[in-house]
Amino acid sequence: MTFATSAFLTVSALALGGLGALFAGQCGMLAFALEGVMLLGGLAGTLFSHGPLWLCLLIAGGVGAAYALLIFLPARFKGDGVFSGAALGGLATALAMLAARWLGGVSYSRRAFQLLVNGENVTVFLPLSLCALLLAWLLLYHTRLGAGLRLCGQDLEYARRQGVRARGMQCLGAVIFGFLGGLGGLAALIALGAGWQLKWGVGGMGLLCLAAAKTGKWKPLPLALAAALLGLFRAGAEELLRLGFGVPDGALRLAPFLLALLLLALQRGRDRAPLEAFRAENAHPARMR
Asked: What is the pLDDT of residues 236-259, one digit of tens each?
């Protein structure tokens, strides 16, 4: 795999996963399970990579969406959603390993995702992530449904007082979160390569997705820029690791996460509170009914 292809895959994975986190809400419990959703969705997609491309992508997103909906079960019975999300995220790794062992291993075809542009394989995930970003921007900022999703992700009680059907919005946000997370996980597993082991999950991609979403202030277009920066940096670190310039392996693997921490530290304190920003953009949220 060339550096360009690896970069396209990594950036696409972070953009799709970050968009999923955006729909989960700024402080949503779903975000804690992002890595697990990405892993299970990605694994399901790789198992069907020898079939039609549309079916492979649909299964990856569908499995991610189904697993994301499980997080609502403990919350519905008044359980702690944060701990439930974290637990289900960790459980995904064990489930993936059991599934791989039961199936006798995992093999996938990278050729199924190939898309050549001027002789360079940009993979189908690059146009897919661009389309997802555009659709997310149109949905969230130009429709009443998107306004309701944003408000429920930012202040659930306030949304209920305004007459928004909070439970339905939460379920819809979970489905979109899981679907995008599953697609991002498929791109992440392909970017990580055949030598990657399932017990390592998606290699911290979920954390980088959350960092991109936070750095982008939970908005699609700034999120895309943050995902591009973090994705290029991670792909560059992996390329240096492959070429072997005498740099310690641990330092190179840690570098993308240090950059994420730096980006978060630089933008800290300049964000308006989510609800304050929403009220400024929507003077009459009751119209969303």
From this structure: 888 888 777 667 777 778 888 999
For 30-56, letters b (16+ CB in 10 Å) and e give bbbbbbbbbbbbbbbbbbbbeeeeeeb
Strands 120-121 and 116-117: antiparallel
CA angle 233, 211, 95 (to 5 degrees): 95
Pairwise CA distance, residues 101 & 285, whole Å: 50
Tokens encoding 127: 């146009």
pLDDT of residue 272: 43
Q: Within 10 Å of residue 265's Cβ, how many Cβ atoms? A: 9
pLDDT at 283: 47
Topology (CATH) of 3-288: ABC transporter involved in vitamin B12 uptake, BtuC (1.10.3470)
The residues with which 190 forms a beta bridge, in sequence order, are none
Residue 273 class from Cβ within 10 Å (0-12 exposed, 13-18 middle, 19+ buried)? exposed
H/E stretch holding 116: strand 116-117
User: 142-192 pLDDT, tens per residue?
Assistant: 888 888 888 776 666 677 777 777 777 878 888 999 999 999 999 998 888
Residues whose CB falls within 8 Å of the CB of residue 200, separated by 6 or more in sequence, listed in order: none
DSSP result, 178-214: HHHHHHHHHHHHHHH-TT--GGGTTTTHHHHHHHHHH
Beta carbons of 217 and 271 less than 8 angstroms apart: yes
Q: CB 241: neighbour CB atoms within 10 A?
A: 16
